[in-house]
Amino acid sequence: MKCRHCQSELSLQLMDLGSSPPSNAYLSASQLAMPEKWYPLRVFTCTQCWLVQTEDCAHYAELFSSEYAYFSSYSTSWLAHSRQYVEHVVDRFALSAVSRVVEVAANDGYLLQYVQSAGIPCMGIEPTASTARAARAKGLEIVEEFFGVALAQRLVSQGNAADLTAANNVLAHVPDVNDFVAGFAALLKPQGVGTFEFPHLMQLVDGCQFDTIYHEHFSYLSLSAVRRLFEANGLDIFDVQELSTHGGSLRVYAQRSDTGTRPKDARVHRLLHIEAEAGIETAAYYAGFQARADDIRDGLLTFLIDARRRGKRVGAYGAAAKGNTLLNYAGVRSGLLPWVVDRNPAKQGQYMPGSRIPIVDEAHLRREQPHYVLILPWNLKAEVMSQLAYIREWGGQFVCAVPWIDIR
């Protein structure tokens, strides 16, 4: 395999998770009688540009199908984060009724609804039909296509050049990163600003967040690699913020390399220095990741087996993609974990890919009153523990498996 950015041959393996089905390929009851497609799941680091990336196995159209089941609006903390983002960029970049905001990967309109409420013209790009429908139901204009240079040029020709583009948690999801990034350079007005949020590779490695590895994540991103990727495709990073979202993320602010005039903030230099000091562009930085992940896998299995032997009931919360990676790598099936609760009605009544564990509504949790609730989306731990605080009434406890078994 060649690097999807610089085309160098890849040889430095970060982790081999065996094989699994796509993490958002949830199963209906009728599909339980059919075979699933499983793909190898290996991650490599390019030793030329230091982009960490998943081995190509499945076409992106299979991963982001018309019935894609991830809807951003079911997380109250993510909605609050998005509202605060809109308030921040409107103030910082003086956006108004004569501005235009374009969000790429608009999902169900979780963010653009706040742009719309602020009276700022906006448009979303969202290739998955299920989430695009939800966004249109909010009165938002949605272009239902995958983003790249060709679409960006067409939008500009139609008078839709952007003062601000937003791309949250999508940079990692695109196979052709060069075409994707170059699309923003084409779409932005001469003094326009692009913002990009993505999980920070340093947090993934330092916290052994291996469950964030799945086929939909084509890339795992450091600021150093993103700077190199952007500079090669017409963008210049002028600011960066460190965020707590998704286990530790970055928000980078970029402008067109040919016309942007904003000075580079000291935060960019500081974080690049931190990454360099950590050795993020050395093979040694990635050594031992597999063994640490295996310890997490073994810890989860030990906990579940011990709970079963002691007659303790365990359920899970959050039918998240990261949960599917964890359960499939650990080989967990319904004998150890009989159900997973999820608030999203689109997932309820379906089954987790690979493990085939049934997905149920929250009423099931109240009826079953398990001794333990395993929180699969550990990045939303505080939100989930607050939402489900009532399990304390029957002596229930919360469990997280990453980066180690934590029972509260």
User: What is the share of helical residues?
Assistant: 25-40%
Shape descriptor: globular
Fraction of residues in β-strands: 15-25%
User: What is the CATH architecture descriptor of the largest domain?
Assistant: 3-Layer(aba) Sandwich
Structural class: alpha/beta
CATH superfamily of the largest domain: Vaccinia Virus protein VP39
Number of domains: 3
Total strands? 17
Oligomeric form of this entry? single chain
In the predicted model, the low-confidence regions spanning at least 5 consecutive residues are none
Give me the Rg, rounded: 21 Å
Measure the end-to-end span: 43 Å
Number of helices: 13
CATH topology of the largest domain: Rossmann fold
The CATH class of the largest domain is Alpha Beta
Across the major sheet, the strand order is: 6-5-4-7-8-11-10
SSE pattern, N- to C-terminal: EEEHHEHEHEHEHEHEHEEHHEHEEHEHEE
Mean pLDDT: 94
The biggest sheet amounts to: 7 strands, mixed
What attributes characterize this protein structure?
Rossmann fold, six-stranded mixed β-sheet, 13 helices, alpha/beta, seven-stranded mixed β-sheet, 17 strands, globular, 408 residues
